[in-house]
Amino acid sequence: MTRRVFFQIHWFLGITAGLVLAVMGVTGAMLSFEDEIMAAISPGIVTLTPGTAAPLAPDAIIARASAQRDGLRVASLTVEHDPARAWRVQFDPVKGKGRRGERSYVDPRDGRLLGAANGSGFFRTVTDLHRWLALPGGGNGIGRQITAFSAIALIFFALSGLYLRWPRRALDWRAWLVLDLRKSGRNLYRALHAVIGGWIVLFYLLSATTGLWWSYDWYRQGVLYTLTGKTSRSEEPRGERDGRGKKPAITPSLARAWPALTQATGGHFESVTINLPKAPGPVGFRVLLPDARHERMTDMVDIDPENGRVLKVTRYADKSVGEVITTSMLEVHRGAIFGMPGRLFLFVTSLTMPLFTITGFLLYFARRRRKRPIDDLPVETAATAGASDLLVAYASQTGGAERLARQTAAALGTSRILPLASVDTDQLAQVDRALFVISTYGEGEPPDRVRRYARQDMAQPPAAGHLHYAVLALGDREYTDFCAFGHQVDHWLHAGGGQRLFDMIEVDGEDADAHRQWQQQLAALGARPDTPDWAPADYAKWRLVDRRLLNPGSAGGPAYLVALEPSDGVTPDWEAGDIAEILPRNDPQRVAALCTRHGQTVDVEQLATSILPSDDNAALADLRPLPHREYSVASIASDGRIELLVRQVRRDDGWLGLGSGWLTRHAPIGSEIDLRVHANPGFHAPTGDPRLILIGNGTGLAGLRGHLRQAAARGVGGHWLFLGERNAAHDSFLDDELNQMLADGTLSHLDRAFSRDSACGRYVQHLVEAQAKTVRLWVEEGAAILVCGSLEGMAPAVDAALRAALGDDRLEAMAEAGLYRRDIY
Q1: Cα dihedral across residues 711, 646, 795, 771: positive or negative
Q2: pLDDT (tens digit per residue) in 331-361
C-alpha cells in the first residue's frame, strides 16, 4: 500500500509540477555560464584591447564614473587584477526606479563607462523565469510560490523515485546504472526516466534543497541555525532617508585604504570588490582569492579610510563548513563550489530536466491507453480449426489480459476461454493444453475478481499431471513484485504436475517485443503462421551479403547460414540470445501469377508485402500486412553482422515458407531485408560468466553459437555443448567451427547425437541422460544451463532428462536464479 501511495503522488506531482521544473531546469542551465557567455559576446565592454596605459586609482575611477551619471553616488567598485578585463561599478538606486542601482563596466585606464554587457537584458529575463516564472509581482508574487512548490516536488521526486525503483538486488550496480537503449516504447521511456534519474538524483537533491534558500525565510533561518548556530538579522539601513534630518551620503576617500589593502594582500588576488559606506566608518574589501573555484571564495578586509589601519580580516580558510555553505549558497546551488567539474555537472543535469517531464508524460499517456476498456480495443478474430483440447484462461483487472486471451483463443481457433476464477479441476481434466494470461495488480496482488480464488482454490496444487501449459504474465516494472501473480500461477500449476510448453513470458506494460514473442510461440502451437502482428514493429534496412547451404544432401530440410549487414554501416548492439525479427516478402512467382490473373490494376508492392488469399483467383480487397518471422541471432555485435541459421520449410501446398523462403531463396544476394533486433533477456547469459551447459537441436544451434562466441570474446572457456541432428554425413552443422572451439578451449566437451544414423540412433535428451552424473557435478560447481531448439519433442524431453538428473526442486531454483534458461519455438 505504501508503494502505491508513493507511486500515485509521484505521478500527480509529475503532471502538475513537471512543466515548471522543465522551465526551471533549462533556465538554470542557461544561467550556469552567464558571465562567460556575456564576456564572450561583449568585447570592448567586458574584455579590453591590450594597451600600455596604467589603470587609474580607485578614487579617480569612482569620481569619473559618478560625474558621468550627474553625480550619482557609486555604491561599489570591483577592481580586476587582469589588465584585459574591465572594472565594474554599481551606483546607488535612483528613487522610484527599483531597489538596485545601475551596473556598468568601466575602463580602468580612463574611467569611461562602457555600459552593461551584451545579453544582460536577456539573462535578466531568464533569471526572472527561473526564480518566479516572470509572473507579475516578481519575488513577492504567485510565481515565487509556484517555483518553491516545484522545488519541494523535486525533492519528493528524487526520494520517491529511489524508493519506487529500488531493485531486488540492491547491490547490483548494473540494475542501477546500465541503460538498455535497445528497448522501445514504454520500456524505453521508463528506462530513460528511471536509470538516468538514478545517475543524477543527488544533483537534483542538491539543486532543490539549495533552491529553497531563496523561497522561504523560515527555511533559510533554519538552515543558518543548523549549520552555524546563528540566524540572520535585518539591519537598519544607514544614510539619508527622504531628507528627514539625516546627513547626506558620502563617498570616503580610498587614498590610504587602497594601499593598505594592497600591502595586506601582497597584490595577490583575482579581483577586489570595494563596498563604499554611506556614512563615516570602515570600508569593506571583498578579496577574491587567486585561483578561486567560485566568486564567494573571498577574504573580507575592513580598513579605516582615515588612517589606512586594517581593522578586521575574515579569512575564507578560517570559516567553518557551515559558514562556507551559508555564505556561498548560490555557488553551491549552481555547483561552482566544486569548481568547473561541479558547474558542468549541474549544467548537464539541469538540461536533462525536460527529459523527465517528457518521459513522465509519455508514461502517463501509455498508462492511460492501457486502461482503456476492452470494448474499445480491436480483437483479432481469425481462427484456426481444431483446438478443442486447449483452454485459454485469464485473470484481468482493467481488461488488457482478457483482450490478449481472446486474441490468443482466436489465433488458435478455440472457444474454450474462461476467467481464471471459473477454472476448476473438472475444467483442467477436460484439456491437455492450457494457456494462462495473467495480470498482476498493485504490489504483486491478484486482480480483484480472483482474490478469493487465489486465496482458497490455489491453496493446494491442482491435479495437473496430464497438463501442458504456458503463462503470459502481465505486469508493470514500476512495482517491485513484477508479474508476481503470474509467477504464482506458474508455480501452482507446476506444483500440481503440469509441464511447461515453454517458459513464462513477462510483459511490461505494452511491451511489443513480448507480445510478438507470445504470438510466435502460438504459431508453434498451431496458430495460423500468416496472422498479422498484434504489435507492429519499426524495421531497419539490412543487406543480405551471404547465404551458405550447411547440409547438402540431407534428408531433412535444407539449412542455410544467412549473413546480413546494416545498410547504413552502423551496427547496433545486441547480446547473445537476442532475436532478429525479419519482415519477409512473398514469393515473386506467386505475386506475378496474381498480377497476371488480376490485370494491371494490381499494386505489385502491396501484393509483395501482404497476406495473399489461399485461392489465387480470390478477390484482392482488404489485404493485411505480412507478419514478421523470428530467428535466434547466431553472431555477436562485434562480428559486425547478423548471422542466422534458417531451415527452409515447404508448406503442404508446395510453396516455401514465408520467412525461410524469402531468406534462403527469393531475396537476391545484395538485396535489402527489413530487420530489427529485440532483446530476449530470458535467454541472456547469466551474470558472473559461469561455465555453460548448452543443449540444442537443429537450427537451435544458432542461439547457442551466439553464446559461445560471446564467451570466447570475453575470454571465458570450458563450456559443454550437446547437439542433436539427423545424419552425421550431412547434418554436422558448422563442424569445423565447433572443433576449432574445442581446440582453443572455448568448448571442453562436444557431444553430438544423430537420430537417423544406425550407429547412434539417439536424440539429444539421451545424451543428457547418459551424462546425468557429470551434468549434476557441473551444476553443483556453479554451471548454468541454456537450451535452444524445437518446442515439439526436444524441449520437453530435455527438460524431463534434466529434472531426472538434478531433481525438480533444484531445476526450479536454477530457473528462478536465471541459471536455467530456454529459447524454444
Answers
A1: negative
A2: 999 999 999 999 999 999 999 999 999 988 8
